[in-house]
Each structure stands twice: as structure tokens, then as C-alpha cells.
Amino acid sequence: MIRKVLIANRGEIAVRILRACRELDIATVAVHSTADAGAMHVRLADESVCIGPPPAARSYLDKAAILAAAEITGADAIHPGYGFLAENPEFAEMVREHGYVFIGPDPEHIRVMGDKIRAKAKMRELGVPVVPGSDGAVRSREEAARIAAEIGYPVLIKAVAGGGGRGMVVVRDPGDLPRAFDLARSEARAGFGDDRVYIEKFLDRPRHIEIQVLGDRHGNVVHLFERDCSIQRRHQKVIEEAPSPVLDDAARAAIGSRVVEAMRQLGYVGAGTVEFLWADGQFYFIEMNTRIQVEHPVTEMITGVDLVREQIRIAAGEPLDFDQDDLEIRGHAMEFRITAEDPETMLPAPGRVTAWHPAGGPGVRVDSHLYAGYTIPPYYDSLIAKLVVHDRDRPRCLARARRSLGEFVVDGTPSTMSLLRAIVESEQMLTGTYDIGWLERFLEARRS
Predict the structure, then answer these.
(1) 244-263 burial string, b = 16+ CB within 10 Å, else e?
(2) Fewer CB under 10 Å: which end of the chain, C or N?
């Protein structure tokens, strides 16, 4: 069994991993930048190591510094969390080459799924439905125009190495394609150092539905049902829920079993999420995230499975101690991402937290690294807390969400709390009839 885990991350996910380790009686090492010297994960860990100045490139993205911290503290495993180096195949390889356990999938799977074109081709090969589009990178305006005409407008131009909504441009009219193609390549080059783009059919008002999977080194693979992540702003998820209000048991079982078989053929090990667009009753693969997801708590709430604990057990070589028949959906759960942003302009708003009173009560979970007096640094992601609520069905879950959002207090810096309260009172949220573009339309209506 793993004895000591170095947590190569910060914020709420670092605290989340630390808690799982503590329950497994595993010692922890926190790494931190100088800006995070007083952070919660540093305070709670058994040991901590400063790995550099505030900029992430000189601290949390510094592979050598992280490996040096593992060496001097005697860690035998490294958990990357999400973001930063979590989906960096070179880092995963370096971790293993230096004799540490990487708590995540094999580097080759990170590499394949990190390339949108290769991932799409691999999933098609494994029998998973994909969005119609180009077979590879599109090199010129002329090639882009030909492919767009073949699959039909509107189309979506996407960065091959993209993520988080960057390097994505929707084109609804052929006359707009040349400018959009150049813009997407420019954004891709600036954001990822790789200007390759590809084209796929743009689905009008689809849902974003993802399937959570776990696989071990003994050939066992399970899915833990789906999460509906359709409430998004600029392709960034804001609210997630499980199960999805638009799927029935037959659709759920069909896509779940297809994903499990694909992961079994792939030989996938660890936690992963296979993401789809769902439109007119059809699923279309868009990407796979080879890491723990920000929204993993909603799956934990409806299944009772600790996904981070399972990541650690799998990395240690242990088999899953449950199979697909042991898993069932128990009630309904929702996650609300609370960010330090102005609720109107959505601009980041770092600052000192003067009051902190998270919601509580039955069926309420708060994952956060905040405390009263903590100063939110300006250098990193603006996520400051995740409110997760659970109840026996969706109407009760929504009632619990309204109550919990109403009593949650974060003072000293702007947050998106008021926006989340407005969303949860909307007709589309109450009825579950939203799509991935709904929140943008909702925000525009609030501004007008």
C-alpha cells in the first residue's frame, strides 16, 4: 500500500485529496507557491514544501521542483488532482521513471485522449459515437470550407490541443469561415502553443452529458452513471447534476455499457470521464478527461463511492471491491461552483475573505479551501468552493439547494453566489429543460 502521497496541486482539490489520504491512514505532503504559504492544504498536510514563486509556471507547473519535493520528503506516490499537470503525459512518465506511483492513468492514455483528433479516432475505433467532422487537423481555409460544406453549417472550429472552451469558434455562415478559421488558429497558438484546429458539426442546443468510469489493473471496469453539465458559461461548467433529468434508464444503461466496453478494450486504468453532447436522443463523443473531475462529488453523493479513495487504491494495485451490479443511483445531487468573480461582469475578484459561513444540514457538502481571514490570490483559478446537495429526488434536491444557497455567506470579496441563487429559481432549472447555451441567454436577458 502507498505510505505517503505528495499532492501536486492546490485549493479545494488538494484538501479533498488530503482528506481521502487521511482516511486511508496515508501521510501527506503539500507543495505550495509562496502565495499559498498560508493555504488550507498546507496547514492540514503532514509536511509541506515551497516549490517556487506565485506564477504557476514557476511553481505548480515546475515538474523538477515537484519531483525534488517528493524526493526530500520520502513520498512514494504523487496525486496531480485536476488542472496544472494532471493531464500532462510527460509528467506522468517522469513520475514513474523516478520510481514514484502516479495516481492516475497510464501516460499513453493521457497522451491519446489529450489530442482531440486522436481521441476521436480512437473512440470511433472502439465503437463510441462521435460528432461528424474532419478526420484530422485542417490546414487551410480552402480545406475548412470544403469540409464545412460537406457536413453542413453551422460548424465548430476547435483547437486540437484545446480545453476549457479556448480555441473554439462557431461558424454559422460560409462567409464567416475564413475569419473564424484564422481566429481559432490564433487562439490555439496563443493558448496552447499549437495552432492545429479541426472542424466538427455544431449541434444546436445540445446537452453536455458525461460518464464517470473507473478501471483497475485486474481488468475490472465500471461506470458510475452520468452527470449533466449543461449549465455552462463560455464552455465553463457552472452547475452539474446527477442523474441527468433528460435520460431514462434504457438510454443510461446503453451509453454506460458502451463506454465500459470501450474502456475495457483500451485497457484504461484509474478514474476517467467520457464526455458527450446529447441531442435528439443521440450521444456524440467530444472528449475524455483522464483525471478526477471538479464535479466528481455529485457522483459520490448518488453512488456512495469515494472516487479519490478509489484512485489511490487502484494506483496501489488493488482491485475494485465492487462491480457494476453493486452500483445504483440513490437520489439526486447537484453541485454549484462558487467562484471569486463579479456576478455581473464575471471578472475575477481576488481579495481577503472577511466572513465565511458555509451551508450545512442534512444532505449538504461543501468542498473548499477557504477560511475567514484567507486572502484569495490573483494568480490561479477563481473557484473558491463547491456546494453539493443531495436528496431523494430532484424536486427535494432543488429545495435543499435553494435553502443552502440562501444561508451560505462569503464576505470580503465578490462571488457568484447571487447568480447561482437566481439560476436555481429559474423556470428552466426547475423543469430541467436547459441546454449548453441556456446560461448565456439567461445572462444576456439579465443584462438587458
Answers:
(1) bebbeeebbeebbebbbebb
(2) C
